[in-house]
Design goal:
alpha/beta; 15 helices; Rossmann fold
């Protein structure tokens, strides 16, 4: 069994022109988007194939089918594909093959490194490495900010094969001479466009500049912009650029719906929608932390088991929220865009844009939390009076109109919860810990 270590020493995470635009995703679309290339047809070592087989992975996704024949031969790759299409497996399979078939260059230093923009994504990649490479007997370590430095430093001691981490924490360990990348055989930059968005590009350059010059480098991104490709050309050798359906930015396994709702009716509509869809796991996006606090409060007091994830939630609590969401203890996760890329949870069957995002790319990343790895999913957006102005830009970015409906009176359920302000003050004066939500009665409230 692969020796997998989360750098926090926490429990392992469990182991997917506007007026003339065509309509997109008006109905639930086809099932898994797979190629006709089988993993067993590629030069993948037996232990890795065994791990893939355990997961039921037989046929490659399109990005895997394009990437693996080239990356398994040692080529540097810059790959573009929409989120949730199997990019992680493509670079992990490549890294495991390299490590299985070559000699270690240093007795303890890492042989492979993956840089990810968020803590949640770093943890998910490490978890994927555990299951895909469980017969390879490699030691994988995840390092990221927001957790105890000493504990993370301790797990870097001894022999390490694969390090997955966020840029800032990796640089901290490098400067303290606790992380040596001079013997890395393969380096991966995941979500490269997000590195630019979050201001991490100089950190990425620093990390790549301290890796072995002879390494193989792979870079994956939802979009291969000019800036991303300049980064690739500066730090990669004869980079091969791969694109999968570059003109279709949203996964075709996601059914997209949009409802026009008056701002004052958004909560009532949401309560109705949740009762109609009855999701096993729902992820609701809002634009601000304050809106998230209000919505989390309201859903809880209308009978839904909810949690809020925003940028200032402590890392330890964020990990616990994600674990509870994966385990089904949380039905509805309310989140700002801190979760738009880094959150990887299997079987999220419903994503709701309670607030339309300002940036069209954020829309794509949000709905990409469902319909992952070929599974079907549903994304519903709410366009209110104030935020509907962002809709034309989103549709231009998608290349088509989202099928829309005007919400009617029979699509509303009354809010049966208490007022937000006074109740929150009372709760904060106590422990702040809440128990089970009240039972939903008659669908969470009366129909208007």
């Amino acid at each position: 069994m692969q020796d997998y270590v989360v750098a926090t020493l926490a429990e392992k995470p469990p182991v997917m022109q506007a007026d003339v635009l065509p309509t997109v995703a008006s109905a639930r679309v086809r099932g898994p988007s797979l190629s006709d290339v089988a993993f067993s047809d590629l030069p993948i070592p037996a232990p890795v194939l065994r791990g893939l087989d355990d997961l039921g992975f037989n046929l490659c996704t399109p990005i895997q089918a394009k990437t693996l024949p080239l990356s398994l031969q040692g080529n540097d790759i810059a790959g573009q594909a929409q989120t949730g299409t199997g990019k992680t497996a493509a670079f992990l399979v490549t890294a495991f093959k390299e490590m299985l078939e070559t000699d270690r260059l240093h007795p303890t230093a890492p042989r492979a490194v993956v840089v990810a923009p968020t803590r949640e994504l770093a943890l998910q990649i490490a978890a994927d490495a555990e299951v895909i490479g469980k017969y390879c007997h490699f030691r994988t370590i995840a390092v990221f900010g927001g957790m105890d430095w000493e504990k993370q430093a301790k797990v870097l001691e001894g022999t390490v094969d694969l390090v997955v981490g966020t840029p800032g924490r990796m640089m901290d360990f490098m400067r303290k001479h606790l992380l040596d990348l001079r013997h890395v055989q393969i380096a991966v930059i995941d979500e490269a466009d997000r590195m630019f968005d979050m201001g991490f590009v100089d950190d990425v350059r620093f990390i790549l500049g301290h890796c072995a010059p002879s390494r193989q480098t792979m870079m994956f991104s939802a979009t291969l912009s000019y800036d991303v490709m300049q980064l690739a050309k500066r730090h990669m050798r004869e980079v091969i650029e791969l694109r999968v359906d570059p003109d279709r930015v949203a996964a075709d396994t996601v059914e997209q719906e949009l409802f026009h709702v008056r701002e004052r009716d958004k909560l009532s509509f949401l309560l109705w929608l949740l009762e109609q869809k009855k999701p096993k796991r729902a992820l609701i996006f809002i634009n601000t932390k304050r809106a998230g606090e209000w919505l989390d409060f309201k859903l809880y007091h209308n009978g839904w088991e909810t949690q809020l994830m925003s940028g200032d939630v402590p890392q330890k609590k964020r990990l616990k929220i994600v674990e509870d969401f994966k385990a089904g203890k949380v039905e509805v996760l309310v989140a700002t865009d801190v979760a738009a890329r880094g959150l990887h949870v299997d079987d999220i069957d419903l994503v709701i844009n309670f607030d339309l995002p300002v940036d069209p790319e954020d829309y794509v990343h949000r709905i990409g939390r469902t319909g992952r790895a070929g599974q079907s999913g549903c994304a519903v957006s709410v366009a209110d009076d104030a935020l509907v102005e962002h809709l034309p830009g989103i549709e231009r970015y998608l290349g088509g109109k989202i099928a829309s409906t005007v919400a009617t009176a029979d699509m509303m359920l009354d809010d049966i919860g208490p007022s937000f302000g006074a109740t929150m003050k009372a709760q904060n004066a106590k422990s702040g810990k809440r128990g089970k939500p009240p039972r939903r009665s008659g669908g969470g409230g009366g129909r208007r």
